[in-house]
Amino acid sequence: MLFLKLKPCIPAVAALLVLIQVQSFPLDFSGPENPTDISSHAAALVEQMSDEQALAQTFMLGWVGATPSPLILDWIRDRNIGGIKIFGWNTEDTTKLAETVGVLQSEALQGAFHIPLLVATDQEGGWIRHVKGATSETPGNMAIGASGRPLDAYWSGYYIGRELAVLGINMNFAPTVDVYTNRDSVVIGPRAFGADPARVGILGTAFMKGQHAAGIIATAKHYPGHGDTNLDSHGVLPQISASFEQLWERELIPYRLLTKEGLAAIMSGHLAFPNTQAGLTPASLSSWFLQDLLRGKLGFQGIIITDDLMMNGATMSAGSLSQAAKEALLAGNDIIMLSKTPRLYDPVWTRLADAMEQEPHFRARVRDAARRVLAIKLTYLRGEQAIPWIPDLKKVASSLPDPEGTAFFLNLAARSVTLVKGTPAGEPGSEGTFPLSPEKAGKVLLAGQYEDFFKIGKLAYPEASGYWYDPEGGTDLVHYAEGADTIIFCLSNADGLPFLKDLQDLHKQVIVFSVLSPVHLDTVPWVDGAIAVYSYSQESFIAGFSAILGRIPLEGTLPFPSNKRP
Fold this sequence. Notes:
This protein is α/β, with parallel strands linked by helices. About 40% of the residues lie in helices and about 10% in strands. It contains 23 helices and 16 strands. It has helices at about 1-5, 10-25, 40-50, 50-55, 70-80, 95-110, 140-145, 150-165, 195-215, 245-250, 255-260, 285-295, 310-320, 320-330, 345-360, 360-380, 395-400, 405-415, 440, 450-460, 475-480, 495-500, 540-550; strands spanning about 60, 85, 120, 125, 130, 170, 215-225, 265-270, 305, 335-340, 420, 445-450, 465-470, 485-490, 510-515, 530. The strands form three sheets. It has an eight-stranded parallel beta sheet with strand order 9-8-7-6-3-2-1-10. Helix 14 (about 320-330) packs across helix 15, helix 15 crosses helix 16 (about 360-380) and helix 20 (about 450-460) packs parallel to helix 23. It is elongated and about 75 Å long. It starts with a helix and ends in a 17-residue tail after the last helix.
């Protein structure tokens, strides 16, 4: 009866119908897939968003545990954040990980605009492999640099990407295009393709294209370059003395190449360059680095993502996490990434939300960042080539590790094995250090720290004995070595050098099997032979021992200049 008594005027009815239509049928993520419409579609989405909805698209959060935490679910349900970051602590069970991605995406798609999440991880290959479980352990970037073949970079990116796609991961923080300038760097080391900027750029571009072919959004890092410091920005803010001119002709060459080839995303590093206009401000918080240089001079059009803002390299400079987040967005980052999930009303959110309300310039910057994020999602997360938002759990067991990828990575490992010290058979006046047959080696002692080193080494030398050295404990390696004719010593870092040097005066044949970066071989010029394989994947051990035995050629090239010291 009440309804019958209402007699609104026609204009009021029309206004009510328009209001109902807008509220009931908002523009959503689906829509035109023509690339020329992406920019306008993204802009229209942002136009309909509240300030907080736009701000949420700039957040990418990690969480602790194998299953979604209540907090990460709250951020997705209540805030509709733009992305999630998967770390190693989330990934031991790959089937559970795929199930988790599906749950989180399902929650995100219930939001007002039905926008899927960016699902990111660090799967560089080699040493850095955040998604563990059944995924491939690969030879890594320095092995690609040793092979020198862009096709090896392309297929590495492709097969790594194809495995991530099965799990519903659509973004990878790779390739690492830091130039291996500082040989003492324990942060970059074998993560680099090498020391030559042009080669790094070429191989990084090929890796990117392989990722894109697999449907993955490639993200080059750590802009503008982490390779000229031995400090780790997780703990401190590294200061790199390079001038702008040095950066332009060295660290920035890979980014110059990648930008021209359509790179979708770049990660900004917590690194200070006091001899540039940025001064002591971290590049990740510097508008000069991100807007003037990257956007302006290089012409980069993709999205910029911070390295983890919870790293001391960012928070120590800004004074607090919330201030670092604000400075990061103002500087030109489009996504702020946090490794842990803050509470919903943590200052990192409330301070940014308040600033949007009170500071028009900040509000415009955040809404522009949201537009850029949505444009990337509209480009890569839709269409026939896009990775399904909800992973098919039935495919996980049959697709990981990728069968074609397994064969490829073994071949890559074989192509990258590098002769660092010693002589191949056939050189004038020498029978050669290699090949080293079991008969030629005599009694063999395998000394190392990796199960696969001993496993594959025993297949190569069935009568060999083994010694696992412990950097934290004492050593009786010399006692065991005295009974051997040849010691094959697996060296991965400086911790092994004291054990190796104990063998110098025994007058035994010592062969070093180097994994990760082989820079430490410069300090042991007295060894009889040394080969480098660049990772501790099983494929790398198979390739290395095959080369020592002479079953495959030693055709890799050291991807940085030797700097031998007495």
